[in-house]
Backbone:
């Protein structure tokens, strides 16, 4: 399927044509990660400002309540840009993990076992797993995607 977008009334003659194949939506989250990730990396490297962020989204040491007092009430606090850098870092990390083919493989180890003929582990035996580590990894990824959604309209330069 080809989708044409534009021209945009306020952007001149910019037209975009996008080719979407069936396999692009088989694992759309994985496909989008390969598109979003380099855009986030570039935005973080070239940004010229930072939006307002919520203290609840960052570690305690970066919260506005942990910053030194502001000289003027209308100033941003000393950690304003650090908060956005941290949030951008979490979004980038989450999309890096999603773009990997098998991040969960970091939490399991198998060895050959020709006697194992049951289930999907044909010829393999699980010798090590870290379920708590895998759950923590997934929770951090989920938080990065939540931050992406929350700050989606702040992804500007």
Residues:
């Amino acid at each position: 399927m080809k989708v044409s977008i534009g021209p945009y009334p306020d952007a001149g003659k910019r037209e975009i044509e996008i080719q979407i194949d069936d396999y692009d939506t088989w694992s759309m989250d994985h496909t989008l990660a390969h598109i979003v990730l380099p855009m986030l990396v570039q935005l973080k490297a070239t940004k010229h400002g930072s939006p307002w962020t919520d203290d609840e989204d960052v570690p305690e040491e970066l919260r506005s309540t942990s910053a030194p007092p502001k000289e003027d009430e209308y100033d941003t606090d000393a950690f304003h840009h650090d908060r956005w850098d941290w949030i951008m870092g979490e979004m980038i990390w989450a999309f890096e993990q999603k773009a990997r083919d098998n991040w969960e493989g970091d939490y399991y180890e198998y060895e050959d076992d020709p006697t194992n003929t049951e289930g999907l582990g044909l010829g393999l035996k699980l010798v090590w797993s870290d379920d708590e580590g895998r759950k923590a990894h997934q929770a951090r990824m989920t938080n990065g995607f939540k931050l992406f959604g929350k700050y989606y309209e702040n992804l500007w330069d």
